[in-house]
Sequence to fold (330 residues):
Amino acid sequence: MRKYILAIVAAVVVLTGCGERKKALLPNVSGKAGEVLVVMEKADWEGAPGNAVRDTLASDCPFLPQREPLYTLVPVTPANFTNIFQVHRNILVLTVNPKTTQEGVRFFNDVWARPQIVIKVEAADAVRLTEVFQENKVRIATAIEQAERDRVIANSILYEEKSIQPVLAERFGGIIHFPNGYSVRKVTDDFVWVACETQYTNQGVFIYKSPVGEDPFTLENLVARRNEYLQKYVPGMFDGTYMITSPLADPEVKYMKYKGRDFAQMRGYWEVYGDYMGGPFVSHSFYSRDGKSIITLDCFVYAPKYDKRHYLRQVEALLYSFEWVKDSNE
Fold:
């Protein structure tokens, strides 16, 4: 009996090892960040199923100064879905199969390349295909967004600027995994400004800690707290100018949970009081580990010469890399 059990364990280990080696041999994904390859028949792409896909994945990105789609969709017919396309980073396959016994949506990782997500939607006819997609559109969009985010985080960890970690850990009890190119711009006891600046772009993150007040996660209080810290610590180019939350459009607040951490996400526009600079921002606010403070991770983009979807998605993903520093008792 003991030999039989050991044989089973050995077989599982071998199979698991083979699976890992197979994945390790997969090529890196192709395609640009923010692209989704959509595999479906031309008639379906031009009909109701294609309209449903476009309405979900190519709708306008919220809170960007110019109209930009959530994703750039690249349609390909099944007949043309060859090796060159199979290594794409995000693949959505919609199939009409009258004989199907697996109607619904299935999610796969690293099928032809890595790190890859493949989503297959199958139904008996075009009407049902549209319905199945509509019923699962939130799951599909969320899975693609998470895959894009995970790639940014993995790259940030691989090429991390580790000198930033102790600065954050000492003040907030947690860290963000910033990649090379980011550096600390300003440090106080309760505020840290980290940025990646080039000639024409600026991707920045503010991390600040404030006392817990009444209803700390309402829109009004989130905006007031943000404006207080920005006016104090983020000056503009000229005397008397400073960053604020734009009053021209109310930000949007959503209450979210990610990897066991509850937070209030605020998304809106920033501008410089007394100047003409501006752009999009996203913030995450949550209780400190001891519950005595509110910690806010606040990212923004300034890229007047370029579309901003890609730059914002990059820096926003860094907020999701936040993790508490383990203490000596853990």
In short: The mean pLDDT is 93. The longest strand covers residues 261-273. The radius of gyration is 23 Å.
